Amino acid sequence: MSDDDQGSGCCGDDGPLYYDEQGDLLDLPVIGPLLSGLPFWPRPAPVDPRIPVEPRIPIDPRIPVEPHIPIQVRRPCSLPVLNGSWLIEFTASRPIPVIAAQQIRGPMRIEVRDTSLRVSGDVYVRRTPILGTLESMRTAFQDEAESYSPGPPDAGGQDQDLNPDLVLRGVNGAPLFPSYPQLPTNQYSWYFRSTGVTYSGGTLTFGLRRHVWNRTSQDFVSTDSGTMTLTCTRSILARAEVATMSGTATIGGVAYHVNARKTSNSYRGCAVEVDVMTGRDWPASALNHGVSRTFQNVYASAGWDVRVRVDQLDIPSDASLSMAELQTLLTSHRGPGAADPWRLWLLIGSAQGGLLGVMFDDDSVPREGAVGFADATLSNSSVIEAGARGQAINDVPAALLRTMVHEAGHALNLFHPKHDVHDPPIGTEIMNQTGDVISFASVSNPYPGNATFAFAVHDRDSLIHAPDPQVRPGWQNFGWGHGSLSSGLPVPTDASGLGGGDDAEGLRLELTLPGEIYVGEYVTAELTLTNTGDEPREVTARLNLAEGYLRLQHVLPDGSLDQVRDVVVACGTRPTAVLAPGESLSARMQLFFTSEGITFSQPGTHVVRAEFDVDLFSTARSPRATVYVRTAATETEVTIAAQTLDSAVGRAFALGDFGTDTAVRDRLVAVAEAHHDADTGAAAALVLANSFARAHVDHRSDARAADDGGRAAARKAAPEEAKHFLDLAMQGRSAEEMVRLAATVASPVESDAPVVTDALGRAKRARKGKADLAAAEAIVADFVAASPA
Amino acid sequence: MSSTLTLTLTVPARSGSDQALLGVVALTNTGAEPVTVNARLNLADGDLVIDAAGPAGTLRAGWPWPADSLPRETELGPGRTLESGVLLLCTATSEPLLPDPGPYTLTVSYRAHSAGSAGRAGGPGSAGGGDRSGEVTAEPVAHTRTPATGPAVAALRDRDVIQSLVSASVLGQAADGLAAVAERGGTNAVLVALTSASTGVADLTATAGDPVAVAVAVTAVVPSTDPRRADLADEFAGDPRATAILADLPH
Hints:
heterodimer; A: Collagenase (Catalytic Domain); Immunoglobulin-like; six-stranded mixed sheet; B: 13 strands; 27% strand
């Protein structure tokens, strides 16, 4: 064993260790695929990596190893070396074009306890931003890894994290300065967790279950399985060498080379900024059963490396803090920080009613702030320690510290056990409400002495192994993982995740949808692609749903995910347009009836996100738009919905033409005549105008041998009817509104659809204003540009 | 012990989709002996559970922010009642609780005795969060949500508006939505008035009409021991029911 391998003697070559699906060490040989053909050795002496090691002088791993050292003298890594956070990188085994290469990497956590070994990881995928070999990318990635580190403690500041016994450094194969791979959320692709592990002779082998993330629905949507084999050996002589592993993986049928580099003996890390109101104190430490408890060492007991920085001590006092005031304090007092490193803001505040604390941040970027109320007062009950009775918790450090650790736990998406959907036991550990902890106190074991300054197993498992979106502050809302928020559908996919390209730097795609509609209402969308860069950019010109470059990812209220395309599928070349800096490409389209049928037929909240392949290698993605769909409520809405909720009518809206279906025509007429003041009625009128403006030819008709050049008109043009319905649609609308609606009614593959130019002509005859007409003309130009010629 | 306790939920039989729904929960001791009960009769502390089964399925009422709090108990004498207002507006994830028009059935349960108290058996870790000992339940209540149109309907589905009403403060971009909600008057106006720190007792009374209505609205959204409760209790000193509700005390 090398000197920096701490532990009680297990060096990884004492014979194979077998762990079941839950990561628990098996006492007996197991017959099954995992163990077949492998000998069984006696169980080694238990190792508990939580046991602090003797302080020792760390050796800087950056000091080069003397060249004459025989580094080939290696032996298997011990279990404590495996234990901790790793940066893992996957490289496809099969050759791939350099231009299509991706970086597939992320954090892997290996938790080794005396009788268990569990592995989990979060994988982030991004398209390689540079042209070059995979090796050069990996070097760049390693450089990037250095920037993941929260950095060493600031000796000149008020950093509280200075206890070398609690954060192991330079030992067990970890680097001197621990770091945690924390990558952009928009690159998140999948999560994996071991389903059975063996460790023998330095080789870690495990089956895994992979959960694939959908960036649109922001949920896991599919599950598959795989295996991974990693070998860890270390030089006997190079004591300060950072541990690495390499091996192979097969996941979802795809083979990878895998490399991993240890980043810390802890599993996860988070920077914590603390601000304090005037007259209150941050509980830097508190005694509990004679043991000094700190925010850091409670989290360290769950494998978390939290770096606490007490910043401002003089936030003006306020007798009672409202949620709005707390949100404002978070916004105005939290220090600046980079986007990717995990960070949390805590406030020692005054009071809010009788609460001890609250995780108040549940907005669109949730779980970044929590507060403890220092003025909350303990009762005079005999189950409260004598010195704490009637005291504000500001003067009872153990009580305030417990609350701060508890609230920070909520910010990491932990629940009160009594509200947790997994129904863990109620007890005295951190995530129990203080009220429940006190209910277990007694005169002989009073609060806060009866509180357990540790996380329950259920919460510790979550802190170490739950997926990043659940745990990371600022990602999924509170309730994801232990509450009522749900997960999604299983769909097989590849290891790169569901997304294609990760982003299109320098381009912004915006999707505009109505905030609320009723089932049966005509729905339109507007998309705008803007060059936000400094250079002209050549992009795909076909911003329509028919040709496949544009797609809408649609999450329905029941959580299911679908992809929205036009009912017409067009194929052709990919014309491009050059966008100057600041210039935009826009298009409008109907979403009433698409490849999904009636797109918004399900009442509830729908989430839609647009994806547009701007070139062969990049995809722009819009922010998510939310549409609340309700049932028709008014008499008018019910009347309209009764006519429009029909597949044939929907298809007429999608094609801009009712064809020869007279029943559909009659339904459209009914809506147009009675409700042309509503956009659904006007859209129906424009479908009729478009249809009547031209003949409908039936190429299959037996009559084609007649006198029409081999074709027969199944519906003759009716200019007067077309004019009538144009007039109806025009009523009460500006030129821009009229043409905007017409551009959505026309099929995206018909750049010469009469309704668009006719609507503009009708608007001109109505003598609309110049600016109005100019806006309408711009919409016509956009329509033509977005459609196949 | 819980057999001597009766829990009820009182709500109007009907409400419009443009109205926030306020209810009154009441815990009454029907026995002959005093009983010490949990006094955290609200959604924020998490001991009161209200499920709404309606056209879109069953949703649970909630307070959006997880909070740590101390135990609060009170002695409930024979025939005495502990009452509180409850806002039936959203789930713990800030989604609308009654999202669609139609019939709803509201079921209520309450942990009348806390986890480690005499009303519960065993020590720490002996019972899961789903343990129902020490719990009382109410008879299910029928409520019909009627269709409505107008900006208040959409506003009551807006996350910022919901969280503002529940927290009695103005959060995010809620100002316009709150104005739309207030225009519907009634309960809406009282709840919106509570989002402004400058709303005085006289304003609240003028808006709500009677002290009990004010007390119900205030206890639904303003935490216990908030100074506003004491101010109102002083104002309503002549109304024992209103003052008891505001002080989380039996009457």
